[in-house]
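Archive entry: two folds, one per protein. Generate the first.
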Amino acid sequence: YTIVKKGDVTGDANITPADSTVVLRNYVGLDKNTDIQNKAADTNKDGKVTPADSTVILRSYVGLDKIEI
């Protein structure tokens, strides 16, 4: 089993702007995320990894939102 923490795309057990950067780099094609990273990145649960997920991660980081499991 693999435990995935929504928003923790880097896998370091923290949700930080670095996770948002990974989402955006994947979106524009600079990097390719693994399936596990994509599961962590889909914070709005729409089945896609987009800049909207990056926004959710950043809002969570500054305390404006909570990422639901």
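Generate the second and append.
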Amino acid sequence: MKKKFIISFLVAFLTFTAFYAYAEINHAPNPFAKLIGIDEEPTANEMDNVEKDKTEEETPDEPKEPETPEKEITGELFFVVMGVDGDDVKDINSVKGQRTDTMILTKLNFDTGEIDMMNLPRDTMVNIPNHGTNKLNAGHAFGGNEGAMSAIRDLTNLDLRHFVKVDYEAVRNLVDAIGGVEFDVPVRMKYYDPTAKPPLNIDLQKGSQTIDGDKAIQLLRWRHNSDWTTGGYGNGSDISRIKTQQDFIKATITQALTFKNIFKLPSILQKVLPNVDTNISIEKMISAAASAGKLDADNIRMETLPGDAQYIGGASYWVYDKTKSKELITSLFGNYYIGD
């Protein structure tokens, strides 16, 4: 019963997120504004602006949504969670041309109680129309939200229509709002790059410790130490980094859904939601919230797109295994598979 309450709260959180983002995008009254104290003054949504490819024409063809009607599957919500390597998801000057740092396909099934999630490594080698061979995370840089989803659709052959996008400021504010997260940092992390956006100044000791908002950003962004001679995950790819992110997500959810934080929901949402963008409709989120109690925390499954790290043409790629990937994708998201 306790676990179902936790998952119900998680879905309710997503529901509040969708309501807020929908109101911002459509300049509509926010139905939860009075509850969580958010200013209802509308702001323009510029997230659909795209970064022009300097090697192409001034206005290259942009990715388009699928022409077929969206699959309506009763009792499910399917979307991709995207994290951008910036500090303001709604500021076009901050995210314009930014690559997605994290991509997680997520499916909530309210009939079976299952929650399926699959990380898509940012370095996954794909072909992006008009841009040739590239990394999966370039989809967002070239075409914004729809560009990212188009690249993911081409990779997975899934009928993906919805996204929830967050930036690092959302993560920082969430972790601070819940009082930090107890986490076992897997390796010594020390890296400095003042030219990064936002600047990187990572200095974390190995071992169990309380991770606050700033440290959370350091943990999630770290790949290797500055001198390349010490530290690092050791396999030259993002896969171990993804594992750390998955572990931290679980630890954060555990802390966020403690009894004391449940009653801080309004203030937590007020700090986090301004840095969330989504195209999930109010209707879909209301339906999800109404069925949230049917979800079961024991049925959470987190996977990563199968493959291996390779250096090709001087660049590091995650070369996915087509056979294993198809098997995993269809086992997790078969209802949305549209064929080869």
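Annotation attached to the second fold: The chain is about 35% helix and 20% strand. The two ends are 41 Å apart (CA to CA).
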